[in-house]
Amino acid sequence: MVRIRRTEKHMSAKNLAKKNISKKDVGIMADLRNLVIFGAACVLAAGVAFNLYLSSLSPIKNLEDFKPNIVTKFYSSDGEIIKTFTAYTFSKIDIKDVPEDFINALIATEDKNFYNHKGYDITGLARSTVQNILAGRVVQGASTITQQLARILFLSNERTFDRKIRELVVAARIEKTISKDKILEMYMNNVYLGSGAYGVEAAAEIYFNKKLKDCTLPELALIAGLPQAPSVYSPFNNMELAVKRRNQVLGRMYKMKYITREQYEEAKEAKVKLTSVPRFYTTNKAPYFCDYVLKELEKLGFDETDISQGGYKVVTTIDYKTQVAVNEAILKNMRNYGLTKPNHQAAVFSFSPIDGKILAYAGGKDYTQTQYDRVQAIRPSGSAFKPFVYAAAMEKGISPNDMIEDAPIKIGDWAPRNYASKYRGEIPVYSALMVSSNVCAVRLIQEVGIRAVIQVARVLGITTPLEYDYTIALGSNGVKLFELTRAYGAFANGGYVVQPYAIERIETSRGKVVYRAPKTKVSRQLSLKTAAEMTAMLKTVIEHGTGAAARIGKPAAGKTGTTDDYKDASFVGYTPNVVTGVWVGNDDNSVMRSIQGGTVPALIWRDVMKVATQPYGNVDFNYPEIELTAFRAKPGSIKVIKEEPKEENETTTTETTNNNYTEQVPMQNEATTPKEVLQNFRQQQQQQQSPVSQPSPQPVVQQQPQPAAKAPTPIPMAIPESLN
């Protein structure tokens, strides 16, 4: 009895406890129930939405006649179409007519498990998923051929997780709808392979002028390597990379035992024999610039397939009229000087120093002959580098009106010379730059230090290696025309470095802006005083000095450059609103006949700038007035730079004994007026039949500066217009 009562009492206590717990947690349980219901509703809604999305897709069976109809175009800033991807070749091919070697090459390169998976590769997907999660964005695709087909036919080219998920689902749907062979056939007929080729048959026609079935094993391997990056691996754009990629494909084929060792070794040594550049390129109004734009788009996350098939409107910064002027100026002036062989080349780069917009861009004179971009090539700049020496001097407190000794100088075993070993005695610093004195440039770099000159060049945007050597004062180092021109921009805009850019905005086919150029970033690297002084000095180069041929009838400043033996000639100059650099030379670095910076480059620059500066009128530089004093000065009233100070930790010798980068500037002799100077030079030119050879080094004797009272007639004076 007692036991029973205890049990009943215990049971009553348990029931009471249950009752109490139920009351406490009833609210939480209700919330959980509601959450489950809401989650289920969301899943159902998502399923309905996704089914609706799938139902909106075109039926697979109707896509066999698909042709790309969404056109991407590049526009100039003033609305002209400079490139369109409609100039494509589209050729269908039946899989029965596709060589087995090509199918094997494509599978080995793009999707080795193609015949075994259901639209996606689990192993590759897992690997890429981890990489993408770690990066927080899509950085690795691991797309199968079926996924690539799904993207081409159905999806956008946005790089998002959402699109990747949809790509997987659509790929699985395709696999359930059509056969593997049909998938492969549709992919081969629709994939973009560069140079306007849609499909493998079109690629064979464009690159080799053959049917795919007639292509050799190395030719098939080259085509099979293109889908990953058509612009990068196109043999028209970069033969070296195209061959490297082809050999990678051949290596994968050998590894998967599709070809023998003998076939592999023979194919990778084969020469690539291309057809002529297709019409696709000739219709391009600014081909070198468009290649540059494609590279910039790749940096933004687009590949060439995205661009060619995405239906984008890419609005660039280029000024159409200026670009046309560039193309015409190069051909006209090079033809006038007999520079008509394919080896004779020129490059022009023009941009705004105010906002960085690229206005014109030509990496050569004929894109159909060569696609090598000489705007980005590294070539010696000659005396066009001297302004960085002078800028360093201005930053150190040297004045344009300070006197400098234009007399022989020797540093160790190196004795730089002026043209024809002519020297002017004591002259103002600005005059030394105007006539491009070599020895004065060397004296200045001694005065301010090699380190200071390199620092100025670096902060202004010269990134190519610069030797810690006095010879850099004469432009012995190679630089890119792109960087050289950009650096001059700081002289034009008050000392600010501006990064040039090419793309204003990108719009989808529906008008949605997916990219807009950010606000231009600028940084002051030179004082306003230095920029004003450099501009005042460089104006004399055009008004009275070696760049007289570049006169455009409005305020402008610039500098000529000619390397030893006439191998490179350049002119870089600017107005307040436009900076333009011009290079002329031979691709094989051979000698040009009597071509200096003051001839063809200056004339090209003149023709380009007349058009480029039209929108801005006859505006002058908004700088503090810099007065350049007359040549004569009272003895002892002005600092004379003539010593040879040695900077601590700097080399005083150089192994370069023959790099006398010369400027052909004649002595003024007895001429007393600009007219007489010009007449004397023209007489000299009429007698000159060939480039003046450089004299053998002679023992150098340090000359004493001439008394100020006996100095030549004050300058600025007119210097021949065709000189460097």
UniProtKB/TrEMBL annotation:
Cross-referenced SUPFAM superfamilies: beta-lactamase/transpeptidase-like, Lysozyme-like
Subcellular location: Membrane
Biased segments, Low complexity type: 651-663, 683-707
Signal peptide boundaries: none
A Pfam family recorded for this sequence: Transgly
Start and end residues of each Penicillin-binding protein transpeptidase domain: 351-609
Gene Ontology molecular functions: carboxypeptidase activity; penicillin binding; peptidoglycan glycosyltransferase activity
Source domain of life: Bacteria
Transmembrane segments: 32-54
Lineage, uppermost ranks: Bacteria, Candidatus Scatousia
Catalytic activity: [GlcNAc-(1->4)-Mur2Ac(oyl-L-Ala-gamma-D-Glu-L-Lys-D-Ala-D-Ala)](n)-di-trans,octa-cis-undecaprenyl diphosphate + beta-D-GlcNAc-(1->4)-Mur2Ac(oyl-L-Ala-gamma-D-Glu-L-Lys-D-Ala-D-Ala)-di-trans,octa-cis-undecaprenyl diphosphate = [GlcNAc-(1->4)-Mur2Ac(oyl-L-Ala-gamma-D-Glu-L-Lys-D-Ala-D-Ala)](n+1)-di-trans,octa-cis-undecaprenyl diphosphate + di-trans,octa-cis-undecaprenyl diphosphate + H(+)
Originating organism: Candidatus Scatousia excrementigallinarum
UniProt-listed Enzyme Commission number(s): 2.4.99.28
InterPro entries registered for this protein in UniProt: Beta-lactam/transpept-like, Glyco_trans_51, Glycosyltr_51/Transpeptidase, Lysozyme-like_dom_sf, PBP_transglycosylase, PCN-bd_Tpept
GO annotation, biological process: cell wall organization; peptidoglycan biosynthetic process; proteolysis; regulation of cell shape
Name of the protein in question: peptidoglycan glycosyltransferase
This protein's GO CC annotations: membrane; outer membrane-bounded periplasmic space
Domain (Glycosyl transferase family) ranges: 79-253
Listed pathway(s): Cell wall biogenesis; peptidoglycan biosynthesis
